[in-house]
Every structure is written in structure tokens, then in C-alpha cells.
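Example 3.2
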Amino acid sequence: MKLIPAEKDHYNVTAKNLKFYNLNTSNFSQHTEWAITIMFYEIVHLIERVFAIAPLKTRDRHSRSHNHRYSTMQNLLKLIPREVTTKYVLLKNLSQDARYEYDAISLEKLKQTRDNEYDELKDFFRQLYRKMRKRRR
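Structure, written as C-alpha cells:
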């Protein structure tokens, strides 16, 4: 039986992704596909960290795919507003486009995405995590 990653596991991956991102910022003008991908996966693990402590069925505490994660987010509309799920989908799609379509994301688009979707999602899921943590005490 495969173990479900715990809240701390997701935190560790998030920290690792952020460290990797910060170490490589000087290269991102030439490798925007990796910058956006790191941003996306940092958000993925912030979301999964929330799921790990959310009032969810065991099967939804760790997503099996991007579609499963999105579905779980939609089921938590009381906690995660539609605008947030929309930003998540936009970041996911940009990440996929950047990896599979040559020159799909310009440096300007990367900066806009970082300043808007990425920063907003990061702030939202960090705050949601803190709120949920307080409720569990």
C-alpha cells in the first residue's frame, strides 16, 4: 500500500521548489517554461498541504491527478472561491503550454503571472492553511 504524503511532506516540497526557484531566477529569462512550472508545482503542494488537514474524505486528502485536485477544490467552494480555482486552472494551463509549446510564454507573461496568479494563489493558500490549522486546535 502506498503511503499518502503528509502535511509536512507537502510543506517540504513547497520549500524545496521555492528554494530552487530562487536559485535560478537569473536563468528564467531564457527558461520561462521552468519558471512557470516551478511556480505551478509550488502552488500544487500548497493546495495539497491544505487538503491534508481539510475536513475531507480520506481519498481526497491527496490528489491522484490534476483533475482530481481541481474537483476537490470545486467541492470546497465554501473555503476556496471560484476565482481561486480559476487562477489555479490558468496557472496549470500556462505551465503545460510553456512545457509543450515552443516559446509559449514570454518573459513579460511570466512576470505578469508571477505578480498576479502565482502571488495571489500563494497568499490565499497560506492564509487558508493557517485558518484551518487554528480550527483544528
